[in-house]
């Protein structure tokens, strides 16, 4: 290959130093070590500012001023609600809401190994925190498993009570409470922001037929409700636990239905809905097979969606993804009389 000047120039640049024996290398050796260069400007300094030191100084002064304004407004006493509130560390064991729901109402005494819910750490808004503090003593209930509930006392009347397990953010619950003031709704979930939201809605719309329970519905059913206490059970869009190894965490299982059946009076309706078809199939299978329930549908299949069930938040998300929603409506059959021998 001939000596092409262009080629040797490029290769020398890639090697980082002039080619051995090249004129550039010899002249560098004659000059001695290169003088020290001034430190490079930060790459974030705009190129025009690098060329003009006065302009760079002006830009730096402006950045310092903006920093000062931002930090002053964050600490101002009248900072808007939306400004992030710095988390103050809570001493260990101190409740998050002194008059609100407890973090673990049942404690380890009623610890269940398999849970149908996923503990979530979600942000509680100022409005929700205010509702939890203000309204929990009036309409809230911790599921601590320590006593049986007198539902007439809890609601202040003897109207029928339906239990809703897993109300999420509670919009559908509030809607049902408003549409049917003659039915009391005992709404249970572990989700603190949802509890605050539902209390807020109940307060805003004057829904005195809703009580908000905090904790595991299984402990509520097992330890705190008396036989035949409930006139209905609603489970809308329970966590689907799609992975096979998590199926054991699904709420609607034969053991759960056996427990629920003891708390439901004969004729009470169990209403489930899900947008996860394999779970809908499981619900239909276990409810159909359970001796204490019968399908309200003559064909033994899914029910048309009853007009009283509003579209829930999770349902909306499922519909957006093109999921099919199935409702199931089963009835608690009358208690079986013990058979006596002839
Ligand atoms: C997928 S969300 C559905 C919420 C709401 N029904 C909706 O459709 O928008 C299921 C809810 O059930 C609650 N949950 C699941 N198992 C529960 C249990 N054993 N006790 C109380 N809440 C439970 C979860 O915390 C969650 O908020």
Short précis:
With 342 residues, the chain is of the alpha/beta class. The chain has helices at residues 5-15, 23-31, 47-51, 53-75, 126-139, 151-155, 171-179, 192-204, 217-224, 254-263, 277-289, 313-320, and strands at 140-142, 161-165, 184-189, 210-214, 230-236, 264-274, 293-295, 326-332.
Secondary-structure topology with pairs:
Layout (H helix, E strand, L loop, with lengths): L4 H11 L7 H9 L15 H5 L1 H23 L50 H14 E3 L8 H5 L5 E5 L5 H9 L4 E6 L2 H13 L5 E5 L2 H8 L5 E7 L17 H10 E11 L2 H13 L3 E3 L17 H8 L5 E7 L10
Parallel strand pairs: 1-4, 2-3, 2-5, 3-4, 5-6
Antiparallel strand pairs: 6-8, 7-8
Helix pairs in contact: 5-8, 7-8
The structure holds S-adenosylmethionine (SAM).
S-adenosylmethionine (SAM) binds next to strand 3, helix 9 and helix 12.
How far apart are the first and last residues' alpha carbons, in Å?
A: 115 Å
CATH architecture of the domain at 126-332: 3-Layer(aba) Sandwich
Instruction: Please tally the helical runs, counting DSSP H or I stretches of 4 or more residues.
Output: 12
Helix content: 25-40%
What ligands are attached or bound here?
A: S-adenosylmethionine
Radius of gyration from the CA trace?
33 Å
Shape: globular
């Amino acid at each position: 290959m001939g000596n092409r000047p262009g080629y040797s120039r490029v290769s020398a640049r890639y090697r980082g130093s002039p080619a051995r024996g090249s004129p550039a290398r010899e002249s560098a050796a004659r000059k001695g070590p290169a003088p020290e260069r001034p430190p490079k400007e930060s790459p974030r300094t705009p190129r025009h500012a690098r060329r003009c030191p006065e302009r760079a100084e002006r830009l730096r002064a402006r950045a310092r001023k903006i920093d000062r304004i931002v930090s002053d407004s964050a600490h101002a006493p009248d900072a808007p609600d939306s400004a992030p509130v710095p988390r103050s560390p809570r001493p260990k064991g101190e409740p998050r809401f002194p008059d609100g729901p407890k973090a673990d109402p049942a404690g380890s005494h009623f610890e269940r190994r398999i849970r149908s819910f996923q503990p979530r750490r979600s942000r509680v808004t100022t409005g929700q925190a205010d509702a939890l503090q203000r309204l929990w003593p009036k309409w809230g209930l911790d599921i601590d498993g320590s006593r049986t509930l007198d539902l007439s006392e809890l609601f202040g009347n003897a109207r029928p009570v339906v239990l809703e397990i897993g109300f999420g953010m509670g919009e559908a619950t509030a809607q049902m409470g408003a549409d049917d003031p003659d039915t009391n709704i005992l709404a249970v979930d572990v989700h603190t922001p949802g509890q605050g939201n539902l209390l807020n809605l109940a307060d805003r719309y004057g829904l005195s037929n809703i009580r908000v329970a905090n904790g595991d519905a299984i402990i509520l059913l097992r330890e705190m409700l008396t036989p035949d206490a409930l006139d209905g059970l609603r489970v809308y869009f329970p966590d689907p636990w799609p992975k096979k190894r998590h199926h054991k965490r699904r709420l609607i299982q034969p053991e759960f239905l056996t427990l629920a059946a003891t708390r439901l009076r004969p004729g009470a309706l169990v209403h489930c809905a899900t947008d996860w078809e394999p779970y809908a199939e499981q619900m239909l299978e276990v409810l159909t097979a359970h001796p204490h329930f019968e399908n309200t549908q003559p064909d033994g299949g899914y029910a048309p969606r009853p007009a009283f069930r509003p579209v829930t938040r999770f349902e909306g998300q499922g519909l957006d993804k093109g999921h099919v929603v199935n409702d199931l409506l089963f009835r608690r059959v009358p208690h079986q009389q013990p058979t006596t021998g002839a």
